[in-house]
Protein: histidine kinase
Organism: Proteinivorax tanatarense
Amino acid sequence: GLLDTRVPIKSHDEIGALTQNFNSMAEQLEKNDENRLSFLADLSHDLKTPLASIKALAESLGDEESKETYQEFLGDIVTEIDRMNITVSRLLEFNKVSNISTKVNKKDFIFAFLVNETVNSMQPLADKKNISINFKGGQLKEKIFGDREKLRQMILNLLDNAIKYSEENGVVEVRLTDKRRELHLSIKDCGKGIPTKELPYLFDRFYRVDKARHKETGGTGIGLAIVKDVAQLHEGRVDVESRLETGTIFTIKLPKQGTWFKTL
Ligand code: ADP
């Protein structure tokens, strides 16, 4: 790999300086390569969540009697396909210009609206396991200055996990709270929980707790890495608390819109 191309610095003259430049360029290229791979992996993950929703929706269409619900489900399917379309376009773009689609598009918007939308879009998947998702805090009008699509993906990944790692008939509690300069979004499940010793690695790319045990859930260990990246992109952070056989709470803490300027 590129590491082999690194040249030892033997003098402190022009040659030494050139060598140092060469080495740091090699390092940069290597880092780009890593990022490129991880970006592609993120995109593939982004395709999986809407696919799962579409599958659930399409399956329940078969048993649907009422024309109204039928059309609502069809509408939901179209929305999910649109979402996949965006991801596929990003993938194509990425092939052309390697960093165009890592572009961040931040705007001011009411965070609760996005949470509500995202919770609704996961409902069909939750229904499959007869899991109910309760959302508290939907009335909050606080704004976030952020990238809507990236934040949507962050919430989707957490909800997807909460459903995936819960038993049937479970309850997932989503709570948005106003904490002075921050908004806190917590997603709590009553699932199998995560062993304490695993918590430090949880947000690492490709990390999965007990690979054999989770084989049937078919994840890739990227979801939480995306969650952490998106939180950091918004000067936020993610906390996790978990107890085996009891459940897990992930809490996203994001600064409200405008807080940055006020604290300067
Ligand atoms: P995956 O695609 O494997 O779900 P994630 O990065 O989303 O990847 O999660 C990493 C690992 O953390 C998962 O494999 C799972 O073992 C564990 N995990 C994530 N969320 C939960 C949860 N809500 N309850 C229990 N375990 C979880």
User: Anything to note?
Assistant: The pocket of adenosine-5'-diphosphate is lined by residues 157, 161-162, 165, 189, 191-194, 202, 207-209, 214, 219-225, 248 (CB under 6 Å).
